[in-house]
Design goal:
The chain is about 25% helix and about 25% strand. It binds adenosine-5'-triphosphate and magnesium ion.
Length: about 375
């Protein structure tokens, strides 16, 4: 392939979904041998834009240029043939197969199937970029981070030299994130173009060479990371100065409204999803629950909302304002109308921006609908 400065150029690329303009007239580029962060609020069109490069969506207008050549990418297969591989947020792996079998599955029809050769080539890729991957491990035995590693090795195996990672760190621990960044740097050193979509500004600043910013589907600009700060990036994302230091007022007269004690939930397979969790929530405060996704947050919210079967000894009590002081025992959670649960809502985005919901995303509309709707007496409107 001819070597040009740019791995990819987008010219006036537009994509709409019915009345929603996901990307409008986007003109930007991705250099080879760089790590480019693609930054923007929820719903700003990052995934859609990258999906067009990866052959998932086809642009309504504009041109994609790969290695200096205008191209027509109509499928992920077309994209891979051009050396473009995308690692999506939801993995596409066969659980009962091993890593090497999954890699072999991604081979094209007509390619000679030789598992030993697949293993040798995959092992060479792992050694070259320092991936920690057991090629003979079954996918169902793998951690999320290992599955993600396998997805990356899969696209490298197929010859990708332009890699797009859609929010890869959302499911990783800080240690796993560092390992991912190390392999990304190895790929960059090998001349590959790497695009990372992330919301986390400190990650953007630590891993990327340049940052491209989208706002409400439009391209705002690309800056050299070395010259950027969290505050300058946030301003570009949001379109106005944002105060990153939130002035947190101390809750006045906090009264206990929710008491969780010894809450345990088991999965249908019998594993402990929540193990003896106890905490209180007070009126007038916002309580954050931190954790890597998939570590019981969903079950915790559902258990509080009375939508999860809990183990014996678990106790969830609600108190009306002043109720506890009056000596009332509180009310059990089952179907309690005072509890509202909205686990699918996305409250990500730049710190300090807005009260929680973000512009232009379906989640916002869901949130607003939920927020404004009179709530049923029988229980919380929580998605199953
Ligand atoms: N398949 C689809 N059908 C209809 N609308 C869509 C579709 N995909 C995306 N959209 C809409 O297009 C806009 C851009 O969405 P996109 O997922 O590209 O944003 P994003 O920047 O990746 O957001 P996030 O940070 O939440 O992942 C949003 O308003 C979204 O609701
Ligand atoms: Mg996205």
């Amino acid at each position: 392939m001819p070597q040009t400065e740019y791995a990819i150029q987008l010219e006036h690329v537009t994509k709409t979904f019915g009345p929603v303009i996901a990307n409008h007239d986007v003109t930007m580029n991705i250099r080879r041998g760089e790590i480019l962060s693609l930054l923007g609020e929820n719903g700003s069109g990052k995934t859609t834009l990258m999906n067009m490069i990866a052959g998932i969506y086809y642009p309504d207008g504009g041109q994609i240029i790969v290695n200096g050549q205008p191209v027509d990418i109509r499928s992920p297969r077309d994209a891979l043939a051009l050396g473009i591989g995308m690692i999506h947020q939801h993995f596409k792996l066969v659980d009962v197969f091993t890593a090497v079998e999954n890699i072999a599955l991604s081979m094209d029809k007509g390619e000679k199937f030789d598992l030993r050769r697949v293993r040798d080539k995959a092992r060479a890729i792992c050694e070259k970029y320092q991936f920690a991957l057991d090629l003979d491990q079954k996918v169902y035995e793998m951690s999320v981070s290992q599955k993600q590693t396998l997805e990356i090795v899969k696209v490298l195996f197929r010859g990708a030299d332009i890699l797009i990672l859609d929010e890869p760190t959302a499911v990783l621990t800080p240690q796993e994130t560092e390992k991912l960044f190390a392999v990304m740097r190895n790929m960059k050193a090998d001349g590959k173009a790497v695009v990372i979509i992330t919301h986390k500004l400190h990650e953007v600043l630590s891993v990327s060479d340049r940052v491209a910013i989208l706002r409400k589907g439009e391209y705002v600009g690309t800056v050299e990371t070395a010259t950027a700060t969290e505050s300058s990036l946030t301003e570009m994302m949001v379109g106005q100065k944002v105060e990153l230091n939130i002035n947190r007022t101390t809750p006045q007269d906090p009264t206990r409204r929710l008491a969780i004690s010894h809450l345990s939930v088991r999965s249908p397979e019998g594993t402990n999803v929540l193990d003896d969790v106890s905490f209180d929530v007070y009126g007038g405060e916002i309580l954050g629950i931190a954790g890597i996704s998939g570590n019981g947050q969903k079950e915790l919210l559902e258990a509080i909302a009375g939508l999860q079967h809990t183990e014996s000894g678990s106790d969830v009590k609600f108190f009306a304002p002043g109720e506890e002081a009056d000596g009332a025992a509180g009310q059990e959670s089952q179907g309690h109308p005072r509890c509202r649960c909205a686990p699918e809502l996305c409250a990500g985005g730049p710190p300090g921006h807005g009260p929680g919901w973000h512009h232009g995303h379906d989640g916002q509309h869901d949130a607003e609908k939920l927020w404004r709707r009179p709530l049923p007496a029988g229980g919380p409107p929580c998605p199953a």
